[in-house]
Amino acid sequence: MAGGVWGPARGAPVGALTLTALAEGIRASRGQPWGPPAPGPQLQPEPEPSAGEPGRAATAPTAGGEPLSPPPPQEPALGVPQQTPWSSWEEGALADLAVYTAACLEEAGFVGTQATALTLSSALEARGHRLEDQVHGLVRGLLAQVPHLAEGRPRRAALRVLSALALEHSGDVVSALLRCSPAPNRAATELWRSLSRNQRVNGQVLVQLLWALKGSAGSQLEALAATRALGEMLAVSGCVGATRGFYPHLLLVLVTQLHKLAWDAHPPDTPKVWAPSHRGPPHSHASCTVEALKALLTGDGGRMVVTCMEQAGGWRRLVGARTHLEGVLLLASALVAHADHHLRGLFADLLPRLRSTDDAQRLTAMAFFTGLLQSRPTARLLREEVILERLRTWQGDPEPTVRWLGLLGLGHLALNCGKVRHATTLLPALLGALGEGDPRLVDAALGALQRVLLRPRAPVRLLSVELRPRLPPLLDDARDSVRASAVGLLGTLVRRGRGGLRVGLRRPLRKLVLQSLVPLLLRLHDPSPDTAESAEWTLACCDQALPWGLLEEVGTEAHYHSPEALSRVCHRLVQWYPSHVPSFLSQTQGYLRSPQSPLRLAATLLTGFLVHHSSPSHVNQDLLDSLFQDLGRLQSDPEPAVVAAARVSGQQVALLARVQPQPCGWRLPRPGRPSCLPARPPPVYADSPFQHCSLPGRWGCSGPG
């Protein structure tokens, strides 16, 4: 190897050659006309190399101190420089010139640097494959000398040497640069960007960096250096075009790299919760990977993808151990919306990864596969039955994350179908997931069922029957996201079935609505804003499907917590559904024990108004006794407003209990005669401590207006 001859130990920097003779040899090798053949350049013999310079005899034909004698003159063959009789002479010339250039590059301000670099770059373009052993030394010299070279021709000449080396030795150049610049420095950045601007070599260098990134599983420093180099190259305008043919592969490798970084630095089984301000572990490596991804997308015209990810918090999610797959799903959605020209390549590239034994690679591919199903043309690349079978297989996986991705995929598949097909396969899997303990699975199943209802010919009746025992418990789920999704699903179901409800059909759906009416009214006061808004929208759908005429009251109660509006709602419900009053009261009674004070207060008010507007014949004595006991327990509630409201509602229960019909001897009053039942005064509640939005003086309720 000639690498041992670098630096001052070499002796004379040029040896027995001159730049003029070398330039003539280069022109001859390219088939250019040159002067009449001479016996050879007048060269002075070079001192014999020392024994400590191994490999010198193989690279310099002048070993032993004998003068160089050129072969007989012969016209070189055009276009075939490798066959010229000057090849052995040039081999020694290139070796000597590489030594000389390295010496120049290691000494800042050397007067021959520019000329030597220009000559060497010309030689490398003609005989680049002759200098495998000198690549690392030249790269080291470039890194040391480039910061000291003046702007203009000297610096461009040195950078031209690097590009000429990379043309034939891209792997060696990339390896040398990665080893010599593990930490960020301006010189390495300039060298990477110079390679990026050269369209003859940038594609080869990017491929080498990609392989370096894939092969650096055990070396974080090498992976970091390769990622940083990719980001620097892709940031140069026009370089992303060189990734044609492996753009999807590069994108998947970078995203998978983020998954591995997140897991290595913070395993998902640890209890830490990622804060929105946390930028991911480790900061330098993850941020470099994100910047490389942004550069890759922006350079390909995907600026909207980057913007959507920023607005949705996708980059922050990508670097979190618990949120990485959510970030992948957001990225896939953004690609579907704004960069669909790469979807086919991505889809084809990720299919083999779905069976990978590497968890990070497999789960990232699954998330991409799930997200790309939102694109109907992409989903058609595989038969619907094949995709459905794959998603069903995921449902049987013991890992909850895999089942979650499968449910999301079923939802996307249902949305892309022209009409709901495979209902016998889709619905059992989605309905069965409603009983899962992981909130992600329940949310995904509820979202998929909503998508099923949005399609033409949706199975409204079947879902009304199936959801009646499953949906009401989810309306009171302890998880905010599950409650909001369940309330929204009920609204979608009512909206799709409102035509039948208006004409008296949809009996299963009508029963489900009445069963869910009290939870919906009380969820208007839910501490979760999403659940409260969803409850208001669902009640508005119910008001349209079942002509109650309570849309204004529902909106007033939702936004102002007005007892007057709530009184009118209760009066109308008692009039329309007198047989359901015991059920309404029993459901409200359960919320009197809620740990959330807004719900306890709302349930107390609802109990008082339902009791006030109910006829004595609607409620039995046992239910009244139970209500009176629960309201009595609220007299010791920590919230003063709940205590005051419980006192007023308890009085209403006591008044209704006094006018209960007796088992014997009780008769309805005769027409025309005043009733013997005493008039019950309306309940009057104090202002709400949770939302002071109602007008003053309107809290004393005298019944429905």
UniProtKB/TrEMBL annotation:
The keyword Iron-sulfur does not apply. Residues 27-85 are annotated as: Disordered. Keywords: Repeat. Residues 387-651 form the Maestro/Maestro-like HEAT-repeats domain. Residues 49-67 have a biased composition (Low complexity). Residues 105-206 form the Maestro-like HEAT-repeats domain. Residues 34-48 have a biased composition (Pro residues). PANTHER family: MAESTRO HEAT-LIKE REPEAT-CONTAINING PROTEIN FAMILY MEMBER 6, MAESTRO-RELATED HEAT DOMAIN-CONTAINING. This is Maestro heat-like repeat-containing protein family member 6 isoform X4. The lineage of its organism: Eukaryota, Metazoa, Chordata, Craniata, Vertebrata.
